[in-house]
Amino acid sequence: MCASDQPAAESAPWTRRSWALVFCLSLMAPISAAPAVEESELKAAIVFNLLLFIDWPPGREPSQSNPLALCVRSGSPLQAPLERLSGRTVRNGRFAVQVLGPATAALGCHALFVDGDESERAWMARVAGTARAVVIADDTTQQNDATAVQLRRLERKLGFDINMSALRGAGVQVSSKLLRLARVIQE
Predict the structure, then answer these.
(1) Is 33 a domain residue?
(2) Which of 20, 63, 143, 179 falls between 20 and 30 A from 168, CA-CA?
(3) Half-sphere exposure (CA, 13 Å, Cβ side) for 8?
(4) Could you report the per-residue pLDDT of 104-139, keeping only the tens digit for each?
(5) Within-domain flag for 31
(6) How many C-beta neighbours within 10 Å does residue 177 have?
């Protein structure tokens, strides 16, 4: 029992009874949950999982000798979380992150994660067009014709929109399972 049989002394604010009450209340408090996942970690996991539902055409499909390459700009908040996912199995191959600088070509990129300021987004969009990469954009970027998947913040949740014409332009097909999870599908 949590109550003390000892009478409480009125003059002392922290008596045995007070400490016993604090102890009993602490036992009733909910156990603290594991620390919340950082948003960048969650976005990286979403981007990785989105790629599992995309089919590339013959000759461009990921394999053991041709890893599924996701290109990301140097300094992106998702660079480190995505790099931690490198080496994981994806379809018939493995996942790899390619970090792009301002003068780097995106040859070999299956997908491209776009974030950053206006000039970086414009540069990445040009890169994506030449590489025929699937463009996945952060919710802070403006969606354009090249953006195939746009991450969206929905109150306290993350979701995504899909642009089917951009996916067709990248020469890929998407699983119907992914389409069912999309918030919005544009034609």
Answers:
(1) no
(2) 63
(3) 14
(4) 666 788 999 988 766 666 766 666 666 688 989 887
(5) no
(6) 9
pLDDT at res. 121 = 67
Residue 94 lies in a domain: yes
Tokens 């029992």 correspond to what residue? 1
Q: Please list the residues that pair with 158 across neighbouring strands.
A: 153
pTM: 0.74
Number of domain units in the chain: 1
CATH assignment of the domain containing 170: 3.40.50.2300
- Rounded Cα distance between 59 and 84, Å, is 27
Cβ neighbors of 74 (< 8 A, separation 6 or more) are: 99, 100, 101
Cα–Cα nearest to 19, from 6, 35, 30: 6
CB atoms within 10 A of CB 5: 7
3-state secondary structure of 163: strand
Instruction: Give the three-state DSSP class for 12.
Output: coil
The reply to whether 63 falls in a domain is yes
Rounded CA-CA distance 85/52 in Å is: 13
